[in-house]
């Protein structure tokens, strides 16, 4: 456990599980997020790829006070937003960017958003991340729940600032880098959820894992929903880009999505007035429930895969927002407990699970950049392996008959 | 008026009324709240008990930017939250805590709350204090007022950050410590209220007084309501803990509270699915209107009293939220101008008073820790003295016939 | 280009258009607003009148974190609020103040306002400026638009903090001082507006110009509305103060305003229970569309003029809130694209224009203090010149038949 002296004095050695790890608290009740630049060299870690972690604070406009943590693995820069539910803003590897170009150019501090504004669509004033957490009381379109309460778009998670943020680096290979952030969703009589989020990666990697644990700290069983709104624009998304996954069932989200059902796995070029189509997918998993969703460009030379488990995240939304670039040319690969209907519609679908008192639920997704045809092909082969010849049910009709406006 | 030199340079000598007092402005337009630790020793005050005042700022999550002022009398630590309406977070004397364990663990900055969220119940996302100010335009359950405006739960006071905070210490015995905070509730055409709050105590005390002055700065008479939501959990609250007050009339808040009316002055142990019962009380006062409400534990060896005046605060709500500990095992002793019905229902009860232009109303409550059987008995005796054999009317039916949901 | 050394190191020389100018960024993503005091002497500028620019940050209450920029031309102190849409708080020349006394005494940080509160009237909790920007998606009274969305009073502009603020001073006479602030109104799928605001003045001036450019960065045409809520109290406003403009058509905003239509250009003394009357004016312009609106005191010795162009701002609201001083004795001279009806009512009036993708619209208003009878008379003469004997249509009935409550 040789290491260089740490002059900044903020790094301590802790046992994290069985392995020894460097650990530093970046944010806590008595500790504001300070500007820091932590490097593997400073930590005395001899990883093959030097890595670094940089924190900063944004100013001006609705960004005032927002903090960012950028993990540079040496091969990919992953930017996390503690102020916005530990969302992943983007991940950049060389000239490939995982993420998208939203019209929303600021990283918006939740203090400046009214989620109840725009009839429950206020969330759209801050939406621009690669990975946006949705939940955990509800997800889906805004509207009144059966008891008359307005449920705002996709819940509070993305606009919940992390109460505590801890960075750790394992002292042994592969020197796993972990950024943990705690989210509290608490309201007297209503909810007592804590979400322990983690993003981990390793030096030199062009992938990262989001690993969250939702705990119901309350004394009563509660409904919950989770959805990981994972969004990709160019260069992955383009005309004839494709989506692949082992699919047990697919159906159009609404009537509008019916027309493109035959080509639901292929993307259009930016298309004026297209707006969006959404397809509700129930993926197959392997014997352990593990599955893989893949997005790749037209030539099949560049892509991304999301590895997750259908026992944790059984419902998968494919959101195809192939409108113009200025409108936000983007697709969402969205593993969830639920689809994007308002919660009131999902109970009948058995997609509003409950979590008992003191129980926890884990959600894990690994995002892997697929650089080159070989890696894309490997991922597609894995999809085929999981599908294993099993049939795909294509439902022509939406699962929910939404009211006409 | 001998005193030691004050190096910090922030303490000035002012005449406060007739007495001389040390005074320092902790927060003002041109002065952010800074971390301070002020001690009686530094002030050169020779009180029998050394005391101190500490200010700090919280970070992370929805706490970002929240300031606290902790007054340590030498016998009790009283924590006030300027960012949240000068509410009293808790008061701790040795191993006795006045306050409660809410599922809401953060001291929430109002910037992060939408009071209009959850159909007007957003307030619950920040509710965890010992003394939470409710008002001053309205109190009570959320719902539309007669003109169609959504009144959010218990008004804006608890989520109104203080504009100016001043600490003073009298230079003569009993060296009264005063923390003053100014709240502004102003909206063009709607309201121009200023609430001059004060919390005072003395060195060595295990009691404190909240003394507020509401002023209608506007040119028109306005409706107003005030309610001091004073909340106690363990160790005072427990199975067979009891409430006592001189009672002129008591009635159940709603149909659900009817069942427990016979035992309304006794508390249950934490009870799953109990939710809450509320009893509307009109207390008797003595010839000057002074009255006393007492909560004590089962053995009658530990309690708290609230001394107030029924000419200021004629309506008293006893809120019995004896649900599970995780749900928030708590009782509220709530002196007010009004009960907790939505304002629209209280006009007929004559519990929506008006305040004329430039008029003021004062509200004063003294919270006293009762340590030991003697002190509890003294308080109960005082209650009996005020009751003075006068009759208690027990109304079986709620004052308001609330609509069924 | 001789100049003194600038020790602060924040001033750089840039070419702004054709002229050379000092320029400094006061606020940007990586630059918080710092307390500064910049003087013409420090800049080495030999203007006839020394001038200065001072920045500061406010604390306490709902002001926490608000920044101000005060431009002192040497003859007038103009205070701008970057945190509130670059609004102009007030402009003071000697003992004459342009601005008014609102019951709202704080300069409110938008983080603490819920615009959706008070049924869409939350905006009133922050309204106290001389120039309050309204728009740019909508202006007008709150209420549901035809699609059911609650439009909050006067849009988001006034509660949009500027993302970037730049100060520049031309290096050649007249040494124009420019304060530029960028506002972003962006919501995925809904809007992508950027408003480049500018306030400019010159050393020694008692006037300033607001010059804004609205750009629709999106790929779709959008509805927009703008209204410059320009508000004046004493000493300009008083009994028998008068309004003058070249008027093509005037009509009462609603039934209540009908009664005072005969005297719509004359002001009352503060009048209890008057509330407000509003008159909808279509001004005449000269051949280029330029027009002038004038407010002056009873003796015609003190006034203000607003010079603007009816091709940019065709609709003008005269808001006469001559209620008591405490209620806010104030008149609004409001050049706009639209009147103050809810957007749903203005489409039929052709007062909800659209802006195509990548298009811009400019809005320019020059506010000039008129000191002395000569200047007031000159302004009134200019009004007459523009009117040029053309007829004024006085409509007795409001343009919109509002529903009765």
TrEMBL record, chains A, B, C:
The UniProt record lists the keyword Methyltransferase: no
A molecular function GO annotation: carbohydrate binding
Signal peptide annotation: 1-21
InterPro entries for the chain: DUF4432, GH-type_carb-bd
Key words of the record: Signal
The UniProt record lists the keyword Signal: yes
Record's protein name: DUF4432 family protein
Natural source organism: Lautropia dentalis
